[in-house]
Design goal:
Elements (H helix, E strand, L loop, with lengths): L6 H10 L3 H14 L8 H8 L6 H15 L28 H13 L13 H13 L17 H21 L1 H20 L5 H24 L3 H17 L3 H17 L3 H15 L5 H17 L3 H15 L16 H14 L3 H14 L5 H17 L3 H14 L6 H17 L3 H19 L1
Helix pairs in contact: 2-3, 2-4, 5-8, 5-10, 6-12, 7-8, 7-9, 8-9, 9-10, 9-11, 10-11, 11-12, 11-13, 12-13, 13-14, 13-15, 14-15, 15-16, 15-17, 16-17, 17-18, 17-19, 18-20, 19-20
Amino acid sequence: MNREPNAQLIALMYEAGVSSKGLAKRMRDHAVHQGRSLGTTHVSVQRWRDGGGIQPQAAADMAQVLSAKLKPRVSLSDLGFPDPYEPSAPASPSYPETMTDALAMLEGTSEERPESTGGKLIIPDAELSSAVLSWMVARPDGVQPDRPSSKRVGMRDVRAVRTAADMFMHLDFLYGGGHGHKALRAYFREEVLPLLSASYTEKVGKALYSAAAEISQLLAWTAYDTGNHRLAYRYLTGTLRLTQVIDDRMFGARILSNLSHQANYLGNHAQAIRLGRAAVEGGKGKSTPRAMALFAAMAARAYSNAGNPIAAGRAMNEAERYFERADTAEDPEWLGYFDSAELMGEFCHCFRDLKQRRGAVKYAQKAVGDTDPNYARTLGFCRMVLAKSQLINGELEAALETATLAVNAGDSLQSARFQRYVNDFQRDVSELTTNHVATEFNEQVRAAIESLNDD
């Protein structure tokens, strides 16, 4: 994380007579004029002045803005940034080699316009394997305590970040990722990232990086839940790199399991399996039994979706054995949501994907019965899995009743994932029957979705 101030940028800004706030505003106005949204603030400019990395499009915007101010054309190399850049092409997702790269990537990602990419995200196997291997074998960077800075960070600041994480996580569970994603991005960019470049003790620095990783991971989940898979992947890989700074192997393994979850959702079965097993192996010896149960459950879901009942059963048994010892260790707060109902929820997905209808109904009923209503999205998922399980079990009326309850209770969810569960169920019902009850259900779903869009 050692870096020198960008003397060229500082000199050009002085020559142009613009402050950090002034340059940030000019860059935002320039982007708006081109029909784009840019989240650059004076904090971003200060980071670049301090030698931090920059995203290609932001660098191009800065060059054009300063060129207009100074008249002679300002190149990227004049600004002290490496060349060549290709501002018209979005940077491809990759694992940051240095912390400077990671912070630049996270900052740039938080400034991107969160447009949905649907299910189209192709990550080369080599790139993913490189990221996993880098995390597995890399030594921790360590924080840089007591470095010169105008801002001093204390544990009070860390507690504020954790409080914000708890608040946004509650909103995410209750209303879906679309509800608070934009506000969380702004908070991360303007309040959290600047703290990482401030001054702090080693104890505070470790706690700060841990809290920042939690916020970054939540940003990934909210992007994923709204269907922006490229943005989610970038946040996840950036968060994985943050965990490497303080050697937080348990949270790093959590990120690998999240990547497995996303790959599984997108149908990339081989990648989902490798990531799931990497989470289990990477977390061993550094994670609590509850965390290991979560990692094993994610691996089980990957095996199930790939149609491998033997490996899936082995992973589910592994998860159960770990969960039996869940209360024997003190868990971090971010893991508090993973209770027996969550485990049953993961298992019912496994049995559904394996088309083992009795197991699917059994575990889905237990998950629905035990899930806290505050976890509205999770409850909605489990109800839809139960409805699907009842459907393949030949219980049409029960399936429609369960699905109707899920749709009615989930009408406030801003979640592309929940909507996919509902759409998949509608398709399955339409293929199996022309029953008038099914037609009425489809009409009810259509009305509910229209009402949600109107809100």
